[in-house]
Structures are given as structure tokens and as C-alpha cells.
Design a protein that fits this description.
The protein has 537 residues and is an alpha+beta fold. Helices cover 24% and strands 27% of the residues.
Length: 537
């Protein structure tokens, strides 16, 4: 029976792949473990092995073409088999993993362990989506241990998302039978997080049934039932291992060398000891190019080389969910939005005097940042083009002003939103920003407190930075970078005097904001900051 081979997910961030080359052509015999093609991912070009044997009946993606993960890559089956229905998109009867009529063939393609249904009263808890942008979560801590009783509404674990560390409560009552993601480990949304049910439940069969229901084609289940405390293959990292060649841990590195079948074959033909070869593939896997470039004796020679007095040292720190999302979002913004920058220098003498006088009022204290936020909000009301969002089919001009204020936290950066900032007075803005900053550092901000901004302000002046540029926080059309207030010689009324100035840089998306529009906004902003009484009248 013909089997549909889909574009595999060869890295945790891969969304589509490009076929660099086919190592088999239509009509060729394919053995299990043969390299079908070389596929370029977002990280590397990797060899893709066949998990099936038969004849290559159809190639769905030509060399040089790209396709999304799970797109039809190839069809393998019996020689001369009719695959017209599969090529036309009917895959309901093509692959054994998608059929329910043949229990014997399905069991053989998945595992020799019999897969049973999940018993009544047993609940498989999945990694929840705790924010709108969350794609995977990291378990910061478990508040329950395997064997503990769990009541509905009790906190099971603390989960780190891309925005905050949040408590996750149980919606079920029972005993915590299994933990699928250990502390410090990450897993994709909807991956198996835990199993809750009656004491004495056969956990191995539950894991098998859950894996079969979720993967359909090749569940990550060992041929022998895994121990209760062994996490199932549900994280993004192990998901890669089910589609690419298996990757072994350091614990069993001596039992199996990480190398592709083609690399092993080439090494055997050339008499190369794979233990002497440094792998450059995913997770250090030895691939074809490593064998081709291997120089005999180089490994032994390197041990006799001169050893300098200094010692190299490094530390690998796993990227947090926040850091991963920051990298992704900023890269998307920088390379999709045509940025340009407008820099101005404001006279801050009047603002300094205004703040000093304002803070002499009882129980009142405002910062220069509060003045900038308020002045920006009022200027945005007069320039809705700068307070806009860009979409492929339209431009959204916002008549409300929600200002995102960038806050530095140990893992990176969060942007809580001051809503309707134009309608707030200076003390209200100051109080809310302080509250957001404190809770941001403790990772206690709620997801909705970081959504919906129409404009963003990033202030590094308190760190002594005079001037800088920022990347637009999409879907906003602009972001304002605020530098430090510095004393310097300035010309006033034709004479040199000591004055205080502050540099601000506006980054604009040229798709929505033309240069003249951005300049006009800065002129209005100047009027509010250099004449601060306008902020309160």
C-alpha cells in the first residue's frame, strides 16, 4: 500500500523546507534508512531518511522548490501501484498510519506495543496556550509530585511563556500519575504535560494511547513500555528526533554514534573510524560532508599540539521563551518593515523647572519619562497616521492612544501598555508605569496587559545613553527612543550658556508614515515637551 511522505519538521523552528537535492528518482527502489533527499531548513541543510521501503512513485516538491511542513513530499509504494488519488489530494487511504480499518498494519507501522484507549477517569493534560503568541512553554517548577493527590483548581505547575511565568491550575481531580515535561524543559503547545487519574492506572498504556491519538503516523513510543517517570517524546527537541535520524544523549553516546546511514556507509568504504570524526550536522550528527572532509590522523595530531597557558571557557545558556520570541518578533519587524529614523534634540530647561515645581505638590512625584509619555500621547491624537498599524490589505488609523512602555527584565524585554494615556494625568501615568515595571520584573504581568499598543516608547536615558535607535514593535508603525538629559553649551539669544538637552529618535515604518508626517509629529511633540504647561491645561 502506498505511503505518503510529508515535508518533515527537521528543526524546532522550521515552518517550511526547500529541497536541495533528491538522492532518489521516480522508479528507484527505496530501502528503510536510505537518504531520500537533502532538505534545507531555517538552520541547516539536512539529509532526510526514508522510514519506509518500496519504490519512489512520486516526487511532490522539485529540487529548489519550497513547501510548508507536512506538505506532500513524496509517495512510496509498490512498483506500478496506482497513486492518482493520492497525487490529487486524497490521502485518506494512502498511508497505513491514517487508516483505521487495518489494525494489524497500523500496529506494525507504529509499535509492537498494543495501543489501547485512554481509560475513563484518566485525563491527559496538555501544555496550555497561556498567551496569544505562545508557541511553546517551559516548566519553571512543579507544585505537585508524581503520586500526589490533585484537586480541581489546585496549582499544578508554574509555566514560563514568551511573556511571563504563570501559574497553571488543574481542571481535574485525581492522582498525578505522570509528568511529561521536567523542570527546565520546554515543549510545544498541546504537547503532553501530565497525566491525572485514579491511583493504580496503567500509565504506559495511557501514554501509548495518547501518543497514537496525537501523532497518527509514528508515535514516539518505545517498543517496551517506558517507566512511569520517563517523559514521553513530546517536546520540540524530541519531535525533531521522530522525523530526522534519532539523536542519542551523552549517557549512551558509546552505544550509538550519531551519523546518517550514508555517512556510515561512506566511512565503512573508506575505512574511517567514526569515533575520530567531528559531526557538523544537527546536534553534532555526522553527515556526508564530514566524511568527505575528514583528514586521517588529524584527531590524533591535535592532541599533541602546543597547549597555551590560557584556557578557553564558555557557558551555554538555553534561550528562554521570552528571548526566543523577542528574537523572532524583532527579526520579523526589522526585515519586513522599511525602517527610517528621525532624530531631534529638545531643550529640556523648561521641563526640568516644571517637574521640580510639580513635585513640590503634596504626595506628588513625576518623572521625565511620565512627561514624555503624556506629551507623546497628546501629539499622537493630532497625528493619527503615526498612531497607525499596517496590514497587507489596509492601514488602521487608531483614534485611541495605547502607549507601550518598554521595560527591561532579566530575560529580555516586555512592553506593558498604558491604555488611553492621553486621558490620564501625569501622576496616574507615573503610578501605572511603576506598577507595570515592578510586576514585569517579577514576571507577574497578565497577557492582556501587554497587548493592544498603538505606539511604543523605549527610554534608555536612565542608563546614561545619549542617543539610540529602536526596532519597531509591530504591528505599531513607530517607536520613540528617548535618551538621557545632558548639560552642554548651547546658544541662547546669541550667547553661549549652559543648557540641558535631550535627544529623541523616532523610528518609522515607511509603509504608513512618510518623512514629512514623522517630522510634523516631532514638531508637535517638541511643543509639548518644551512648553510643559500645555500638558496640564
Amino acid at each position: 500500500m502506498a505511503i505518503v511522505v510529508n515535508m518533515p519538521r527537521l528543526s524546532d523552528t522550521m515552518e517550511e523546507g526547500t529541497v536541495s537535492s533528491w538522492l532518489k528518482k521516480v522508479g528507484d527502489k527505496v530501502e528503510e534508512g536510505d537518504i531520500l533527499a537533502e532538505i534545507e531548513t531555517d538552520k541547516a541543510t539536512m539529509e532526510f531518511e526514508s522510514f519506509n521501503e518500496g519504490f519512489l512513485l512520486h516526487i511532490g516538491i522539485a529540487e529548489g522548490e519550497s513547501a510548508a511542513v507536512d506538505s506532500l513530499l513524496a509517495i512510496i509504494g509498490d512498483e506500478g501501484e496506482d497513486i492518482s488519488a493520492l497525487v490529487n489530494g486524497d490521502t485518506t487511504t494512502s498511508a497505513p498510519e491514517n487508516t483505521s480499518e487495518s489494525e494489524e498494519s497500523q500496529s506494525e507501522s507504529i509499535t509492537k506495543t498494543q495501543i489501547s484507549a485512554i481509560p475513563d477517569g484518566v485525563e491527559v493534560v496538555k501544555m496550555p496556550r497561556l498567551s496569544d503568541t505562545m508557541e511553546e512553554g517551559t516548566v519553571a517548577s512543579w507544585l505537585k509530585n508524581v503520586g500526589d493527590a490533585v484537586e480541581e483548581g489546585e496549582i499544578l505547575a508554574e509555566i514560563e511563556t514568551d511573556k511571563a511565568t504563570m501559574e497553571f491550575e488543574s481542571f481535574y481531580a485525581g492522582e498525578l500519575l505522570h509528568i511529561g515535561v521536567q523542570v527546565g524543559e520546554s515543549a510545544a503547545v498541546d504537547s503532553l504535560l501530565a497525566v491525572i487519574g485514579p491511583s493504580g492506572t496503567d500509565v504506559a498504556s495511557v501514554l501509548a494511547a495518547s501518543s497514537n491519538a496525537n501523532s497518527g503516523s509514528s508515535p514516539a513510543i518505545e517498543k517496551e513500555a517506558a517507566p512511569v517517570d520517563t517523559p514521553p517524546a513530546a517536546t520540540a527537541e524530541t519531535a525533531v528526533q521522530t522525523t530526522a535520524s534519532p539523536v542519542v544523549s551523552s549517557a549512551n553516546i558509546n552505544e550509538r554514534i550519531m551519523a546518517s546511514p550514508l555517512a556510515k556507509k561512506m566511512a565503512a568504504e573508506k575505512g574511517i573510524d567514526l569515533l575520530q570524526v567531528q559531526g557538523t550536522g544537527e546536534h553534532g550528527r555526522i553527515v556526508k560532508r564530514d566524511i568527505e572532509q575528514f583528514v586521517p590522523g588529524s584527531a590524533a595530531a591535535s592532541t599533541q599540539a602546543f597547549v597555551p597557558k590560557g584556557q578557553e571557557s564558555s557557558e551555554d545558556i538555553p534561550n528562554s521563551q521570552m528571548r526566543k520570541v523577542i528574537a523572532k518578533r524583532l527579526a520579523e519587524s526589522k526585515f519586513s518593515a522599511p525602517h527610517y529614523y528621525l532624530s531631534v534634540e529638545f531643550d529640556m530647561d523648561a521641563a526640568i523647572a516644571f517637574r521640580k515645581q510639580y513635585n513640590e505638590l503634596p504626595n506628588t512625584k513625576i518623572s521625565f519619562n511620565d512627561i514624555v509619555v503624556k506629551a507623546t500621547a497628546l501629539a499622537l491624537k493630532k497625528h493619527p497616521q503615526v498612531n497607525s498599524r499596517w496590514f497587507d490589505d489596509r492601514m488602521q488609523l487608531n483614534h485611541h492612544v495605547h502607549i507601550g512602555v518598554a521595560v527591561a527584565v532579566p530575560d529580555g524585554l516586555v512592553v506593558p501598555v498604558v491604555r488611553f494615556a492621553d486621558e490620564m494625568d501625569l501622576p496616574q501615568i507615573g503610578s501605572q508605569v511603576k506598577d507595570y515595571a515592578a510586576r514585569a520584573r517579577d514576571k507577574k504581568l497578565a497577557p492582556d496587559e501587554m497587548e493592544g499598543s498603538t505606539f511604543t516608547i523605549s527610554n534608555l536615558g536612565m542608563f546614561g545613553i545619549d542617543e539610540f535607535t529602536s526596532i519597531i514593535n509591530q504591528p505599531n508603525s513607530a517607536i520613540l527612543s528617548v535618551g538621557a538629559i545632558v548639560q552642554k553649551p548651547v546658544v541662547k539669544d546669541g550667547e553661549i550658556a549652559v543648557g540641558s538637552t535631550m535627544k529623541l529618535t523616532l523610528a518609522c515604518d515607511h509603509r504608513t508614515i512618510d518623512g514629512a508626517t514623522g517630522a510634523q509629529f516631532l514638531q508637535t511633540l517638541r511643543e509639548y515637551i518644551e512648553q510643559p504647561l500645555r500638558l496640564v491645561i
